[in-house]
Amino acid sequence: MGGGKILLLNMFGIDETLTWVSWFIYLYIWAMVMMPFAGRLIDREPYLWVVLLILLSFILQTAIWYYVPEFNSHLWWHPLMVCAGWTPTIMLGYLFAREGVFQKVQLPNHWSVPVIAILIVALILYLKMILPGIKIINFDIIYAPVIILCVVTLFSQHEMSWFKKVMVELGDKSVYMWFVHALFFCAATRPVYHRFVMFTDNLCLVALWTIVVSYMISALIKKIMEI
Q1: Of 181, 165, 163, whose CA–CA distance to 221 is shortest?
Q2: Which of 135, 137, 155, 214 is geometrically suited to a Cys-Cys bond with 177, CB 3.0 to 4.6 A?
Q3: What is the C-alpha separation between 144 and 149, in angstroms, rounded?
């Protein structure tokens, strides 16, 4: 395989030899190709087609799991498995957005509600670390809606304008930050760049400092791109 082809496959995340952070690019392409067709079906019969499309994705994953030996090491089967694994979450997200599910939720305006929401978010993040899924089932189909509901609850009961500004700013640079942070941890670039963030053995401090450094570099890159 030529060097140019390897580089191209790495850019789209299909080959993870150089970087493992580009996987969402092929997932994004999958979603952009799939959703115009899936969206039309869901718009006709929302609940029926969401259930059917989720079942189809599970069937595809099951077929790959049982009939493609070592699919995780295969150049093309692994990305297909990833895309099929995220499809149920994408379908559910489209349905929730279409039906305005979170806008319809009414919670009591009580001081305990935000506290409970924060505790639930912490619990979900912990569960995400220790139990991201089981075989073909990606638990984000449960985790994502719950976290979104908790965040919506927090913002609906408290203004938190400073926090909104922080989240908007991070969201504006998030794609750049995702690629920049890979410089510090991917095998191809880690030997050169990891020393800029690995100043301690405390992973929490390393994570916070990586976010800060990634944001600063990303802000500079975005400024250059906008010139």
Answers
A1: 181
A2: 214
A3: 9
Which one, of 114, 215, 102, lies nearest residue 168 by Cα?
215
Cβ atoms within 10 Å of 62's Cβ, excluding its own? 13
- Give the model's pLDDT for residue 18: 64
Alpha helices in the chain, H assignment, sequence order? 3-11, 23-44, 46-67, 77-99, 101-104, 112-130, 140-157, 161-185, 190-193, 203-226
Torsion 183-187-191-195 (CA) sign:
positive
In the predicted model, residues of the chain with pLDDT beneath 50 are none
Q: What was the pLDDT predicted at 219?
A: 94
Q: Do residues 11 and 24 lie in contact, with contact meaning Cβ atoms separated by under 8 Å?
A: no
Q: Where do the domains of the chain lie?
A: 1-99, 105-158, 159-227
Q: For position 121, what pLDDT does the model report?
A: 93
Taking residue 188's Cβ as centre, other Cβ atoms within 10 Å add up to 12
Please give the angle made by the CA atoms of 43, 47 and 49, to the nearest 5 degrees: 65
Tokens encoding 106: 């009414």
State the DSSP string of 62-88: HHHHHHSTTGGGSTTHHHHHHHHHHHH
What pLDDT score was predicted for residue 177? 92
Q: What is the pLDDT of residues 42-56, one digit of tens each?
A: 999 999 999 999 999
- H/E element holding 137? strand 137-138
pLDDT value at residue 107: 81
Measured CA to CA, the distance from residue 102 to residue 180 in angstroms comes to: 33
**Which two three-digit tokens encode residue 71?**
């699919």
68, two tokens: 């493609």
